[in-house]
User: Fold this.
Amino acid sequence: MRHFKTLFAAFFIFGTLISCSNEAAPSDEWETFGDEITPAGSVSVGDVIDEFELDVEKEFKITGTLVSVCQEKGCWTTLETDDGRDIRMTFKDYSFFLPIDYAGKTVVAEGIGFKKVTGVDELRHFAEDGGKSAEDIEAITEPKTEYLFEARGVLAR
Assistant:
């Protein structure tokens, strides 16, 4: 009986240590949104942005850090390159969104990248959804050539 109690105590302590260590360890797991993808073969957004062409859609698997997320419902995000260029990422057929508190998360996204001239009304709409001030929104008076990415699948952590 004494051996049973000792064995039981050892298993209890071991199990407690294991469960505590799992809770304390940061998660390296990816959350999946949209189509299931893997991080394999992804390239930094800064390394491929110069391959985006005006109104020509090309396939990419990119990785980067979210700078901002639409505060209305997470229907678009922005990523920034090291040299300060922004890429606005939307989601194929608006079939999924990202949580609005995901700015700062690392993502891998698979989809199409391209450049597009975006009109003033649409730019103002995005600025409003992004929480910009009325003054900032009114300051938008010219169309802008933007880098865009339409993701069909996103991993985030």
